[in-house]
Specification:
The chain is of the alpha/beta class. It has 20 helices and 16 strands. Helix 13 (about 330-345) crosses helix 15 (about 370-385) and helix 18 crosses helix 19. One of its GO terms (molecular function) is ATP binding.
Length: about 450
């Protein structure tokens, strides 16, 4: 049986009955209707793969003009619909014109069942092939930034990191939902990608979605997609991130930033494993592995009724708590050397080591920006260095900055620390949001959210 939904449009009840009785044994679903005027409603409610369309509806008509009109209408909704035209009047010129106008095939009535099935089978393969190509195009467009950037590997020998890696290897082969917790810059995306890379889905899509940068008005259309005409700028159908990640892994970063209404919508998708595009009513099944991350205290937010408990239960089958860099000891030097080698290669320099003074500075710095800040510091140091080693001066960790950094208590609440970092960045750049966001490793939208959250 073909995994396809076939829509048959014909004004002859006998034709509809005959087609239904035969095709219901051959395909997943058969939908019939007598008038092409029902096309819009049927296509908006059902995920149709193949359309069998009669060419004449008015009594005595045989020129096929109606069929060509409705063919054009269907393809204006989605140019990738597979349409097979049907007529009782054999006409080579009409068949050629129909194919030129976008029809996939042409069949004469009454048909032979074997011929009809062969035509439907070929159309089904074409539809599936078109879907795969379209999906790959959308994935390529959505992931271009990540594909060109690449991903870092997990680097570290600290006990906490080794324990996390051991847990990761146990969890990755399963489809369990994973929640990754930790301060900004601790490497949550790196761990998410490592889980994906060690999973059964490693050859499928890894879809990263920064929820902190999504405007609330764009949340549904970005994650769940939209139909043509759903809103002013919706000029074509577009699948959302969940559809694009079908078969692979979707990583929802900064999930703690979602408002309660958006949490409810996300929960519904996770529970039902279906998405409904804006402007449509039909549900589309999605099969994704879910990984989420946040630096916010979700349990405290549940107690304050700012995060749904049922959503938290859904996303945290397994929790990974990433330690801040200041608590990883000599991992600081391992990471520093890793970044030094990477950026030396990128900028075509032959830098071989860190000076002893540079190592001491790195070990004694508190790293409020964690691994991300260390990465930025080493990139700048490689660029500024003139010799074969990185000096203390190349790091540009000024005494003032160093003193301010060391004044941060180790046990300061994450939220207080984050607020202080945001305020410092804004003050440093005299209110320039773009520069402050870049220094913090955030998008402008994510920084605005924090400004509002902390009342800065």
């Amino acid at each position: 049986m073909l995994d396809a939904t076939v829509l048959i449009i014909d004004d002859d009840d006998d034709i509809l009955l005959s087609a239904r009785l035969f095709l219901k044994q051959q395909v997943k679903q058969v939908i019939t209707c007598k008038s092409p005027k029902e096309i819009n409603v049927l296509l908006s409610k059902n995920e149709v793969d193949i359309i069998l369309l009669d060419m004449n509806y008015q009594k005595g008509a045989s020129d096929g003009r109606e069929g060509l009109y409705w063919l054009e209408h269907i393809l204006s909704i989605d140019k990738d619909y597979v349409v097979i035209l049907m007529t009782a009047f054999g006409n080579v010129e009409l068949a050629v014109k129909a194919i030129k106008n976008g029809a996939t095939d042409f069949i004469l009535k009454p048909w032979e069942n074997e011929k009809l099935f062969a035509t439907i089978s070929a159309a089904s393969k074409l539809r599936e092939s078109t879907r795969k190509v379209k999906k790959l195009e959308k994935i390529h467009s959505s992931l271009q930034k990540d594909l060109t950037r690449g991903f870092e590997n997990i680097v570290g020998q600290a006990d906490g990191i080794k324990q996390l890696q051991a847990t990761l290897l146990k969890v990755a082969p399963t489809d369990a939902n994973v929640l990754i917790l930790g301060e900004n810059g601790t490497g949550k995306q790196v761990f998410a990608y490592e889980i994906h890379g060690n999973s059964q889905r490693k050859n499928q899509v890894f879809m990263h979605v920064d929820l902190g940068s999504l405007n609330e008005n764009l949340f549904e259309s970005e994650l769940f997609g939209y139909a043509k005409g759903a809103f002013t700028d919706a000029k074509e159908d577009k699948p959302g991130r969940f559809e694009l990640a079908d078969g692979g892994t979707i990583f929802l970063d900064e999930i703690g930033n979602l408002t309660l209404p958006l949490q409810a919508k996300l929960l519904s998708v996770l529970q039902n494993r279906t998405v409904t595009r804006l402007g449509e009513s039909k549900e589309r099944k999605v099969n994704v592995r879910l990984i989420t991350a946040t630096n916010m205290p979700l349990n405290e937010m549940v107690a304050k009724n700012t995060f749904r408990q049922d959503l938290l239960f859904r996303i945290n089958t397994v929790e990974l708590l990433l330690p801040p860099l200041r608590k990883r000891g000599t991992d600081i030097l391992l990471l520093a050397n890793h970044f030094m080698q990477s950026f030396s290669s990128k900028y075509h320099k032959e830098i071989r080591k860190l000076s002893h003074k540079a190592e001491d500075v790195l070990l004694n710095y508190k790293w409020p920006g964690n691994v991300r800040e260390l990465q930025h510091v080493l990139e700048r140091a490689v660029i500024m260095s003139d010799g074969s080693e990185i000096s203390e001066e190349d790091l540009q960790l000024s005494p003032q900055r160093f003193a301010q950094n060391n004044s941060i208590p180790d046990e300061m609440a994450l939220e207080d620390m984050e607020k202080m970092m945001v305020q410092k960045a804004i003050d440093k750049h005299k209110g320039n949001i773009s520069k402050a966001a870049a220094e913090l490793g955030l998008t402008r939208a994510a920084l605005y959210r924090r400004i509002e959250k902390f009342g800065i």
